Structures are given as C-alpha cells and as structure tokens.
Inverse folding.
C-alpha cells in the first residue's frame, strides 16, 4: 500500500481503540455511495476500499469505476484513524497529481465490526464542485451489496410505516393511483417469523419509505407521541435508504423524538394527510427520475 501523500493536512493525534476493533477494520471492504448532488452524477456508486491498520495512523485506498468511460478507474489515497472505539475520520485525495478531488470521510463502525456507515464531504474530481454523499461499507472483497442498493427497475416500491391511525390507507391509495407499488408491515409474510425478520425483507424489497407519525400515545407530560414501532422503523429505513429516501410525515402536535430534531420532515394537519401528497410525489420524481432508454 502506498505511503500517505505529502499533500495531506497535518495529522491529528488519533485515539487507540482496543486491538479487536482496530484489526477488524484492516483489509478489504466493499461500499455503496449515494451522492446528494446534481443529476449528472449517478444515484449510486460502488466503491472498493483497502485499509492498513498496522500502525496507529491508518492508511488506505478508495477506488471506483467512473461513470465517464474516458476516466476509467478513479483512485484515492486515504489517511486517518479512530476518534473513539467506533468513529473513524479519514482525509482522502486523488492519486493523480493536478486533478481536483479531495475530502473527508466520516465513518461509524458497527458493534459487530462488519459494517461502517457515514458520510463523504469534499470536492468532486468530476464536477470540480463541493458535494455530500452517504456511504455504507461491508467487510470483505465478496460482501453482498444487493440488499443495500437503492436501484430498482421501473418505479420504486414504497414502504409505509404507520401506527393505529388509518391515515396511511389514504396515502397508500394515492400512491397506487400514481402507479407506485406499496408495501406495509401487514403485507409481509409473518408466520413463524420475528418482526425484525419481516422488516429485513421489507427493507430489501423497497427503495423508498414513508414513516407516518401520528399522535397516539400520551406522555407523562401530557404530550402526544407516535407509536414506538414507527419510531423504530424510522431508524431502520433511514439507516438503510438515507434521509432523502426515508421521509418522515409528522402530524402537527405530535412530539418530535431525538432523531427528528434537525432533520427535515413533511408536516400535516390532523386527519389531513393529503397535505403531504404534493411534496411526496415531487420527492419521488426527484429521487427516481425517468431514465432514457
């Protein structure tokens, strides 16, 4: 593995995690990147990583095949380390001197050390513009990325998470009227299976989620909050699809939970979920534009 380029900024004094966590990062990983940029960039990019953790300062390589055929494989050098037992921070720069392309990679290592999730913030060597992307990494050269892909043929399948309120049925009919296939927890196969198993299948089969948070449980403070199953589903689907494709629909007057604070959501009046129809269809069309044949 190459030595870290001299162009890297001053290296901070990184944290030393336990040996098991550090060793788990070493080696090959496969990743999917979801750029939040202009339409000239693909919705999803497959990336390969190789980390060397034999020293406190972790070095590595990040490469992907460009969507511009003339560019071939784009390679980057990485350098960084642990900030604590789970969080990693890397700086990367293009290997080819003189080509714009650099940024920061922020990752969170899962408890079982088989997955890393996070963000990339930088300047693209393709557009020469700032960008922000979400990313998931799976350990191993042959790791199966298909369950995490957001790319589906045709219109996306939409999952609706909901509580006891019947508002979701109105939303489902509207989506079906516009040609979208809709999945809900009720439509999954339940016999002999746990809730987690059913939801895992739902996440594998859908590429967009709407989480309907209606006021159904009263807190000790007298406020209304959403059913906790919907809160749980919100975390699962945002972790799988990203915040742009797992949209919270929040009934006015319902208490926000921690994960909602600072995250955009679509508000609606009580018994008026139709307030959300226009922004939902607009978001679906933005995230899944019609492609030329």
């Amino acid at each position: 593995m190459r030595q870290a380029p001299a162009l890297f900024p001053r290296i901070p004094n990184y944290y030393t995690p336990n040996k098991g966590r550090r060793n788990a990062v070493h080696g090959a990983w496969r990743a999917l990147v979801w750029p939040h940029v202009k339409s000239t960039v693909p919705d999803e990019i497959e990336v390969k990583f190789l980390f060397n953790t034999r020293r406190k300062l972790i070095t590595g390589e990040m490469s992907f095949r460009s969507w511009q055929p003339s560019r071939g494989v784009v390679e980057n050098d990485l350098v960084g380390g642990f900030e604590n037992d789970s969080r990693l921070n890397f700086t990367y720069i293009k290997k080819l001197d003189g080509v714009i392309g650099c940024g920061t990679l922020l990752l969170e290592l899962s408890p079982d050390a088989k997955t890393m999730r996070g963000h990339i913030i930088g300047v693209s060597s393709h557009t020469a513009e700032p960008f922000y992307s979400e990313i998931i990494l799976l350990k191993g050269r042959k790791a199966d990325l298909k369950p995490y892909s957001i790319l589906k043929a045709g219109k996306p399948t939409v999952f609706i998470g909901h509580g006891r309120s019947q508002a979701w049925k109105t939303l489902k009919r509207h989506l079906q009227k516009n040609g979208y296939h809709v999945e809900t927890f009720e439509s999954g196969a339940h016999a002999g299976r746990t809730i987690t198993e059913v939801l895992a299948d739902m996440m594998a089969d859908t590429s967009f989620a709407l989480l309907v948070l209606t006021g159904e449980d009263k807190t000790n403070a007298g406020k209304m909050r959403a059913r906790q199953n919907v809160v749980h589903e919100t975390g699962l689907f945002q972790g799988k699809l990203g915040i742009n494709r797992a949209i919270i629909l929040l009934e006015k007057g319902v208490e926000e939970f921690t994960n909602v604070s600072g995250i955009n959501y679509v508000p609606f009046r009580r018994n008026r979920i139709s307030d959300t129809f226009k922004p939902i269809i607009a978001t679906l069309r933005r995230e899944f534009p019609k492609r030329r044949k």
